[in-house]
Design goal:
Blueprint: E1 3-8, H1 16-25, E2 33-40, E3 43-50, H2 53-56, H3 59-64, E4 69-75, E5 90-92, E6 98-106, H4 109-118, H5 129-145, H6 157-170, E7 173-181, E8 185-190, E9 199-203, E10 212-216, H7 219-224, E11 228-232, E12 237-242, E13 247-251, H8 263-268, E14 274-275, E15 278-279, H9 280-298, E16 306-309, H10 315-325, E17 328-329, E18 333-335, H11 348-358, E19 359-361, E20 370-375, H12 382-393, E21 398-403, H13 431-438, E22 442-445, H14 448-455, H15 468-471, H16 481-491, H17 493-510
Parallel strand pairs: 16-17, 16-20, 20-21, 21-22
Antiparallel strand pairs: 1-4, 1-10, 2-3, 2-4, 5-6, 6-7, 7-8, 8-12, 9-10, 9-11, 12-13, 14-15, 18-19
Helix pairs in contact: 4-5, 5-6, 9-10, 9-14, 11-12
Amino acid sequence: MCGIIGVVAQVGQPVAPIIYDGLTVLQHRGQDAAGIVTCNEEHLFQRKANGLVRDVFQQRHMDTLVGHMGVGHVRYPTAGTASCAEAQPFYTNSPHGISLAHNGNLTNADELREQLYREDLRHVNTSSDSEVLMNIFAHELLERGKMYIDKELRLNVEDVFYAVSRVHERCRGGYAIISMITGYGVLGFRDPWGIRPLILGRRDSSDEKGDEWVLASESVALIALGCEVIRDVEPGEAVFITADGKLYEKQCSDEATYSPCIFEHVYFARPDSVIDGISVHRARLKMGRKLAARIPIEHPDAEIDVVIPVPDSGRIAAMELAKDLEVSFREGFVKNRYVGRTFIMPGQAIRKESVRKKLNPIPYEFEGKNVLLVDDSIVRGNTSAKIVEMARNAGAKRVYFASAAPPVIHPNVYGIDMAVKGEYIAHGKTQEEVSQAIGADWLMYQKLEDLIDACQGGTCGVVNFDTSCFNGVYVTGDIDETYLEKLEEVRNDAAKAAQIKNDEIIEIHNEP
């Protein structure tokens, strides 16, 4: 999961500060690396490195990022490694000079990498599927250019849209892309299922130089930059903004249909975002209502004294659940905001230690009470078990647990690194067995149909979602057991630990 942004500002207006501000708002989508590429006429300027946005970009870096259009990216690794070499945006010089930022994951990256080498005669320098996708787009744009008899250096918007249509034909998986073509403009497009989000906004100009345009992963970035939210880029659609601010739009897939990732609403997106016309905040309120409606039926004897959220993404569901049950809602945990998201950290020992550092209970809210803890989801269960233990140690009489999402029992293959089946606490276990494993008196999961109902609707009328991590139904239709077995080989904790060690060795060797 990553955050991407692209901006075409007015000619003469420095774009780097705008992109920087947008990336800080999207920081929750990736804390591993950050990068910005800007364009000043025919010249590109780049800064990217491992770390948070505030640490990667100092004033001396911002002073060198000149130009009025550019692309930015914040990353956490899914496919590929976490080394600095794979920080984005990526760049290829042919044709025209293309910079690209990618959110998502290609499911046929290995096949495409082979095609690029043997058929397209292009070299991919990293293990990242994002570089694969960039080279597919670049190759198709180059091939399109060969149709011109006079072989003049030229590019028109139809060439760009044709190359996007070929990307849709060749690439499988989830992807939202923002790409900059040097000297020409900024392009944004989504996969034909709309799995990964992308939204378009406009910054009004009071003079005659024209409007400024912004593409970003979430609407919250547009609002923070003072943009008018225009609309979500549709599945399979491409939008191209020229260097002088003209907007072009085209549907580039014959099979486009909405099936966005439902986990955006459960966990990843900020609650103040609206994705595909669906308010994340409202969806999470509904998740709480769905759980509240079932508790008196399934646990009629439960005497709940207080509802306490697991911060932060469980808070909204917990608030609405407490309201509907007419039970006190209290904050019982203090969060250390300088520890990253634990479910994407490699290694059980690292995750458990991070949970201890991440949350601290307030004993007053637990002592002698029957407590209902509410979290957004349960993946490996390490965090949940530790939180239940903390609640008991703080004096809770009974500890109940509610998950706003159903049991996670299948891998996510479209851009969220959620471990492998054998590492999911719910894999092969009943709800009662999971409850025992995390130490709760009872556990309630959200029903999948209730989660879908909570997220449906909005201005885009979305009714179908990718819910593969809950039911194993992959919307792209190309995932089989062979693919999942190979995925397990690279995603298990032992493989990740080995990769981290290798990355550290590479970084040491690359130090000046």
